[in-house]
Specification:
Helices cover 64% and strands 3% of the residues. The protein is mainly alpha-helical and 460 residues long. It has one domain. The strands form 2 sheets. It has a two-stranded antiparallel ribbon. The protein is globular and about 95 Å long.
């Protein structure tokens, strides 16, 4: 071999080496840019383009997760907590003078309200996890307990402000619990009889008997606002359960007749109606209670005089910490604060009806609707009385007025609403799982897990 062949061969080998080096560098750069794993065999890069890549878990590795669901209606929870905080604040502001005069301590009523709030919260938590379908078994015992309690008021009750409505020294008012029980019982009963409500013998007549017993016992106390509330709740639930319009018209007619009877033949009813009508024509001719309420709102103006600085509650406003607490709210927070409180109750109604709409079954829808309408009715009546739009009723403002019985049954109603909401979310999650169920065809070892008619004996 001459020197020419050796020289050309050397040049050829060096050219081959340079091309290999360029291929190696380009392969390393492409692998680095694409993030693909590269292995080397005898210095030659081999890209594993077609090899199955396996994910190796590490603490830094994040995997997609399902969104966390609390299982309850969060807006309802927030608005309820806000109402409870506002209630405690206003009870302390409105009751310290009365509390000091009666018990010698400015905080006795407030501390009692705190105790009932804690007990009511525990009841609400329990009922939020207590399946509302169990009320089907408990409805009849509850209705019997309510009737016995109302009878006990008539014979063993304590007289306060000219009425006998409470037991145990004024700590328990069975009429408040009766409103909650009547909603539960009617929801269970109407749902069970939903296919027979078109028959008057199975629909309107039994409903009238139930409402008549409760209304009559409460009327004897007397507690006219509770009687009207129970009758209205029965009518609303009867309508929502699917009763025909003929029976609804008969029920409305009977309600008007009963209302007229109360107004014209009851001393309490005629007195309240007699002071309400002149007040509509001329606010200065309204009852003393309503006139003092007007005074509080006028003093409050748009922005109020400040929390704790109202003086109407100190100069003759009747029962400022219970029935008249909305007037105290108006004086201390003004129109802005009063409207904000109305909005809070509006949000509560909105969420309650939304829960009823999403309820898993008809019984849940009736329960949620009835409880929401009840709380809304209580709030509307109390606030309407204080601004002269309704005759004086004497009912409490839910979550705001001082009073253990009303606070506890109101929180119990919220707990049941939470339970309907929780079961609705649970049902929704089950449905989503059934709709999104996909067979996992390949495992972490990239092998088939489900048999296939075309499967071969190989690993793929």
């Amino acid at each position: 071999m001459n020197w020419r062949s050796l020289l050309s061969g050397g040049r050829k080998d060096s050219a081959v080496a340079r091309r290999a080096a360029r291929r190696k560098n380009s392969s390393i750069g492409a692998s680095a840019q694409s993030g693909r794993p590269t292995s080397f065999v005898m210095g030659t890069p081999l890209e594993e383009d077609n090899a199955p890549r396996r994910e190796v878990w590490s603490p830094k590795t994040t995997s997609p997760r399902r969104p966390v669901r609390l299982g309850i209606d969060v807006p309802l929870l927030l608005v309820t907590c806000t109402l409870m905080i506002v209630g405690l604040l206003m009870v302390f502001s409105a009751s310290w003078e009365y509390s000091f005069a009666v018990d010698g301590s400015p905080t006795s009523i407030f501390l009692r309200q705190v105790v009932f709030l804690g007990a009511g919260t525990l009841v609400a938590i329990f009922l939020a996890w207590f399946d509302y379908h169990y009320w089907q078994k408990l409805a009849v015992p509850l209705i019997l307990i309510a009737i016995v309690s109302l009878l006990g008021v008539l014979f063993l009750g304590d007289e306060r402000h000219g009425a006998v409505r409470s037991l145990a020294g004024g700590s328990v008012q069975p009429s408040e619990a009766a409103k909650l029980i009547i909603v539960i019982y009617l929801s269970v009963w109407l749902y069970a009889k939903r296919d027979q409500l078109g028959d008057i013998g199975f629909g309107l007549l039994p409903l009238g008997g139930i409402l008549g017993i409760f209304g009559g016992l409460i009327y004897l106390q007397p507690d006219l606002s509770a009687v009207i509330t129970i009758i209205l709740l029965g009518g609303v639930l009867f309508f929502l359960a699917g009763a025909d319009m003929r029976q609804i018209a008969i029920l409305v007619l009977l309600t008007v007749i009963i209302g007229g009877f109360i107004v014209f033949f009851s001393a309490t009813g005629s007195d309240r109606w007699g002071s309400f009508v002149p007040g509509l024509k001329d606010p200065t001719q309204a009852s003393y209670h309503v006139r003092r309420s007007f005074e509080a709102f006028v003093k409050g103006g748009w922005f109020g005089v400040g929390i704790g600085k109202a003086d109407t509650k100190l100069t003759g406003l009747p029962v400022p910490h219970t029935d008249s607490i909305f007037a105290v709210v108006g004086e201390e927070t003004g129109v802005i604060g009063s409207v904000a409180l109305v909005i809070l109750f509006g949000v509560l109604v909105w969420r309650g009806l939304a829960i009823a709409r999403r309820a898993p079954d008809g019984m849940g829808a009736l329960l949620a609707s009835g409880l929401t309408v009840w709380l809304a009715l209580e709030a509307f009546v109390n606030m309407g009385v204080m601004i002269g739009l309704l005759p004086f009723a004497g009912n409490a403002l839910p979550f705001i007025s001082a009073g253990g019985s009303n606070l506890m049954v109101s929180l119990a109603a919220i707990g049941i609403l939470f339970n309907v909401s929780r079961l609705s979310e649970k049902t929704k999650e089950v449905e989503e799982r059934s709709y999104s169920a996909v067979v996992n065809m390949r495992g972490r070892d990239w092998r088939r897990r489900v048999s296939s008619p075309r499967r071969t004996s190989g690993p793929y």
